[in-house]
Hints:
The protein has helices at residues 30-39, 117-120, 298-304; strands at residues 44-48, 59-61, 64-66, 76-81, 90-100, 105-114, 129-134, 144-148, 157-160, 165-166, 169-172, 175-180, 186-188, 204-211, 218-227, 234-243, 253-258, 274-284, 311-314, 320-324, 331-337, 343-350, 354-358, 365-373, 376-384. By secondary structure, it is mainly beta. The strands form five sheets. Strands 1, 3, 4, 6, 14, 15, 16 and 18 form an eight-stranded antiparallel sheet that branches. A hairpin with a 5-residue loop joins strand 12 (175-180) and strand 13 (186-188). The longest helix is centred in the N-terminal third of the chain and has 10 residues, at 30-39. The radius of gyration is 21 Å and the shape is globular. The relative contact order is 0.16.
Amino acid sequence: MTPLSVLKAIALPLLPAGIILPYLAVAQTDADRNFQNRCTVTGVVKCLGLDNTASGVTLMGGAKFDNAVKASGTASMRVDIAPSAGESPGNLTTKLGADFGEGRSLYLQWRQRFSPEMIDIDLGGEGFKQFVIYDGTPCGPNMEVAMLNQDFGGFPILYSACGSSYLRKSLGSGNYALMWNQDGTICSSQNKAGCLRYKADQWMTFYYEQKIGAWGQPNSVVRVSMAEENQPLKTFIDFSDYTFKSDQTTSAYRDIWVGPFSLGRTANDAYPMAQTWIDEVIISTQPIADPFEAGTGLRERMSARNPGGPKIHSSVSGSRITISLPPSDQPAGIAIYDNRGRRVRNDAATGGQVVEWDASAEGTGVYLVKVRIGGRDFIRKVSILQ
């Protein structure tokens, strides 16, 4: 009889070409099922579990599989950044699984973990990138989008067009927004207190979304979100009028680099050893579920750690958000924010009350619902689809 500890492929529905699922143990964990559920929905063109070479993944440089530290499955990709390492200590590169040019939407989600040294210690060069998407060769022609911890500031920024166009907005007087958050705070070049920062020693979630309207025209959408471990995603970059540059109208993003790269870094014995881990890379033409939202399995486990909280959900078809408050003699406060951090609803309620809000006047999108009751805060992200 085959021992239960032996890993084997499990029966799965037929998947689109290019999707790579990890080998899973007979007894799957919640995290395994969560990842599998996000991989097997319509639109996913590539799904990388980064478990082993059998998954079809080739790691470059010093990157290696780590069986001890992983978000799900049996392993993750680990990159050790030694003092002697150069610009590219390790990564994976792969085709996106589809061409993403004019009129096409790209959704990229991954999990990443950082050692404390990766966050705000100067390790040399411009600061380590997390991903680069490009066409064949980075920066040609004008084809590159990258996200990085610029100058080791401790938070992510995004640029396109090979570093000539940064995703930020002017605030006047030489000040500009580096990121703008759902809670209304602004991380600016003159005040970085509102930045959503990287967190060490936990599996963070990152989510990049883009839809190119037309090359060279201010009609493209770019949205970037991130989350601490066991927390819902929080959007910190949101453009509906971004201009993607390309020298050719037939261009499309076709390739991706995932892993640390710090332009200009040279070996230096003064640098400390640093590490980063990457897991659960998903590429899709359709939105990818938040790992910690309803229907993915992990949100329910989170709720079990906070019993007695409100039930917050949106209608499957329609524009209503419903908040069902638990029985309590404590007053409750309800605030709803849109994805630009603007508060669109602010109500007082009582325990046991069911509060509904019709979002039709605001439109489709992602909303943040914050309920404060009995001195405790409960926060959920919900989506209005139509």
